Amino acid sequence: MMKLSCAAFLVFALVLITSSVFYPAMAYPASGRTCGDKCKTRCSKAGVLDRCIKYCGICCQQCKCVPSGTYGNKHECPCYRDMRNSKGKPKCP
To answer: Which of 9, 23, 25, 40 sits 20 to 30 Å CA-CA off 60?
Structure first.
């Protein structure tokens, strides 16, 4: 049983490390540009700019990254992608 637990932990750790090694190069990391700058870029084509920047900023503070571009690319930042509001819909723009 202990060997199975150790093997499962190693597989989980490997997946976690692998996913965090490849994606941050594409997303805007928290260092360098501030969340405000990254969210202005992300929300530049949003219909409701102030709301987009507000929620993007919340997500950036918690996730320490913002996907590149103005839409999509959420696979670059899994935390950002997986955040949900109280209704179960995506929280981050």
So the answer is: 9
Task: Provide the phi-psi class of 32: left if phi over 0, else alpha when psi is between -120 and 50, else beta.
Answer: left
Rounded-to-integer distance, Cα 24 and Cα 78, Å: 10
Tokens 């949900």 locate to 84
DSSP 3-state of 4: helix
CA–CA dist 11, 16 (Å, integer): 9
Three-state DSSP state, 88: coil
pLDDT at residue 25, rounded to an integer: 39
**Reduced DSSP (H G I as helix, E B as strand, rest coil) percent helix, strand, coil of the chain, to 5:** 55, 5, 40
CA 53 to chain centre: 15
